[in-house]
User: Which sequence fits this backbone?
């Protein structure tokens, strides 16, 4: 079931690429970004492009980034191997050293400054006018640039992002789409390098609408030879709250498996499935929400993020601005409204919270709030 319900978004993305845009896909985790990237890659040939997907999470320096880039190009089935063979030959001619004779691109990367290597690579991809243009789809770039900071210091983020901006402006026949579960715009704002993104066009990947969610649930059930009763479908949508394809699929698969084939799935069955989603044995479905805060933020911001989420989680109808501000300004700790605005914006952009009227904040996903209260927020 590749990229169910994303026909409109797919058409719009190809329209943007054909118009020469480089894109920043804004969406929280578990919304289907990676599925969309792979879907675009699969369709690239039909749209006159060659595409690669780079998952750069877990890499820690620039040479890791370009090693993955070149490997993905080489694995591109149509002409990827020929492209990289030609590139290695071209780079050997430029470098002209005894150690470059017979070296492949991996050896040349190790012998060369990453900027010089990358400049020759993108020149090679950009100038090959007889071939379809390249589309480079980068997943988890924000996590990668934060890893750069940990290894190379604060300046490394700005250096790399501004260098990427220069690449986009210089090599117009190479298109880019950046995505990640951490907002790249949030990372850039935190490190005062937002100018490195000012040529990118934002594209928001939204959760499913209620109608699409119902069609999605029905499709999952039909493949298991069962069906959801209408009230059961409504119960899933209401309790989940935020219609992430990932969580819809997990709930539907569990409910259908428990009910068995040819048995109508009723409201009791879907609530039982959602209750099982919150069991400790299913923590793999939720743990990355907490891990994201603990791994990607430093003190005191990390503690403040947790404190805000605890305050919001403990209020059935959400927490207003003053309650949140008061919960942080206890004892000798003081936080300004501007500082709070930046922290709340992070929780909004990373998918934890949503903002209602009069600056009232709630968990975007009801089930995540239930999980947070059960396993993360300190017990009173």
Assistant:
């Amino acid at each position: 079931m590749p990229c169910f319900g994303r026909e409109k978004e797919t058409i719009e993305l190809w329209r943007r690429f054909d118009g020469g845009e480089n894109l920043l896909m804004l969406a929280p985790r578990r919304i289907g970004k990676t599925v969309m990237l792979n879907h675009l890659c699969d369709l690239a040939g039909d749209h006159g492009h060659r595409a690669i997907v780079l998952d750069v999470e877990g890499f820690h320096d620039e040479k890791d980034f370009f090693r993955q880039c070149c490997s993905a190009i080489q694995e591109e089935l149509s002409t990827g191997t020929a492209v990289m063979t030609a590139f290695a030959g071209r780079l050997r001619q430029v470098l002209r050293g005894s150690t470059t004779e017979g070296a492949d691109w991996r050896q040349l990367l190790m012998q060369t400054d990453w900027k010089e290597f990358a400049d020759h690579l993108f020149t090679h991809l950009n100038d090959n006018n007889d071939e379809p243009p390249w589309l480079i789809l980068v997943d988890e770039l924000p996590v990668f640039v934060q890893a750069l900071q940990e290894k190379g210091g604060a300046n490394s983020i700005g250096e790399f992002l501004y260098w990427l901006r220069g690449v986009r402006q210089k090599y117009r026949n190479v298109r880019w789409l950046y995505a990640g579960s951490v907002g790249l715009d949030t990372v850039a704002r935190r490190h005062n390098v937002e100018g490195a993104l000012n040529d990118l066009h934002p594209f928001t990947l939204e959760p499913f609408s209620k109608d699409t969610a119902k069609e999605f649930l029905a499709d999952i059930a039909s493949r298991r030879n069962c069906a959801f009763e209408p009230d059961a479908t409504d119960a899933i949508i209401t309790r989940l709250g935020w219609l992430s394809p990932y969580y819809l699929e997990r709930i539907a698969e569990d409910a259908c498996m428990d009910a068995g084939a040819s048995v109508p799935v009723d409201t009791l069955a879907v609530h039982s499935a959602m209750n099982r989603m919150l069991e400790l044995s299913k923590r793999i479905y939720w743990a990355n929400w907490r891990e994201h805060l603990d791994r990607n933020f430093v003190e005191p911001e990390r503690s403040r993020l947790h404190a805000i989420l605890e305050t919001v989680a403990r209020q059935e109808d959400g927490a207003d601005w003053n309650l949140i501000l008061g919960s942080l300004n206890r004892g000798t700790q003081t936080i300004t409204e501007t500082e709070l605005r930046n922290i709340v914006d992070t929780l909004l952009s990373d998918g934890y919270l949503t903002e209602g009227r009069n600056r009232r904040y709630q968990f975007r996903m009801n089930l995540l709030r239930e999980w947070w209260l059960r396993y993360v927020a300190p017990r009173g």
In short: The mean pLDDT is 91. The radius of gyration is 23 Å. The longest strand covers residues 50-55.
